[in-house]
Amino acid sequence: MAKLSTRITSITGGGSDGWEVFNRARQMIAAGETVTELTQGEHDILTDDSILDAMHRSARSGQTGYALVPGVPALRDAVAARVQARTGVPTSADNVLITPGGQSALFAAHMAACSPGDTALYIDPYYATYPGTIRAASAKPVAIQTRARDAFLPDPEAINAAAQTHAARSLLVNSPNNPTGSVYPRESIEQIAKSCVDNDMWLISDEVYDTQIWKGAHLSPRALPEMADRTFVVGSLSKSHAMTGSRIGWIIGPKPAIDCMIDLATSTTYGVPGYIQDAALFALAQGDALEEQIATPFRRRRTLVLDVLSEQNTVTAIPSNGAMYTMLDIRATGLSGFDFAQALLTEHKIAVMPGESFGTSAAGHIRVALTVADDKLAASVRTICQFAEQLTQGRSNAT
């Protein structure tokens, strides 16, 4: 075989991709074992039938050929109107590129913000694809560490230090946050924005969970002074409308940048199928009611998990103010999140994501996805707590 490029062979950085426990759980399921999966951010409620009907009608009417690469005008207009209504920032279709999901938008944003070899900052803990996406864009990923006792909120001094040390070109943030559930307060967003202005960086704001706010309020940094011309906002219908497999999202940014990203899309994805865009347009037209319907189970399950945790004192939760996850601190067991997750899967056939899958800041934690029925989730969290208590007692007896 001819030699592969270093760009493609270095996407994982030569280390783990963070998905070992998830992959092992899927192998067990394929072998016929019953596993409770609390790993992936995949809704247990499927895409609404009305959206699927709209997709079917569009496909049957002939929207199965090439669609316009930037997105069909009606959908770009709808996304722009949605963003403007929610942020107060003037936004037109010229500020919108429709993408095959939020992941494609993240890649496009880094391609636009960074030249080959530039440093791109991101906050640790992070969604598992972030550093690989940055490497795929030929940039250098540098993580900004956070601390559990600070609810994993970033320290502006750490951002400034990293930006200056590495002459960074971009900063990637995610609020509401996956994996921690943190919702960045206004003060944090303002500090992040100031760091970007002071250090002349692009801010890439992953806001795919903006409809899942349990406590506090979502503030898009694009709405702050001096930020509209240096911010890319990544959005998606995956989480807000349970359309993960439809692969439909967008990126918002200044028109000259969007024009360049349209050139990138023409050379890579070549757009999104028209029937999926029509389904997305229909979904957005349903307004807040459908979005609240999708979010309600996760709001309820967050409370359920906190109630279960209140029954014991071995496992504690990082404040989960948004998104469909709860981050649990299991450091009392003496195990890493990875070892705890592997043992939990072996002994109880419950699959969770180790905190280490999301960076070093979350070591000794696990992420629990709130994506199974209430009774099964409650039973699983109780088992997790009991298992942690057994490990903690065993550790105490050993010493």
From TrEMBL:
Q: Tell me which residues make up the Aminotransferase class I/classII large domain.
A: 35-378
Cofactor(s) needed: pyridoxal 5'-phosphate
SUPFAM superfamilies membership: PLP-dependent transferases
Q: Which UniProt keywords apply?
A: Aminotransferase, Pyridoxal phosphate, Pyruvate, Transferase
- Molecular function terms, GO-annotated: L-aspartate:2-oxoglutarate aminotransferase activity; pyridoxal phosphate binding
Give me any GO biological process, just one. Answer: amino acid metabolic process
Q: What is its EC number?
A: 2.6.1.-
Q: Which reaction does it catalyse?
A: L-aspartate + 2-oxoglutarate = oxaloacetate + L-glutamate
Q: What is this protein called?
A: Aminotransferase
Q: Which organism is it from?
A: Pelagimonas varians
Q: What is this organism's lineage?
A: Bacteria, Pseudomonadati, Pseudomonadota, Alphaproteobacteria, Rhodobacterales
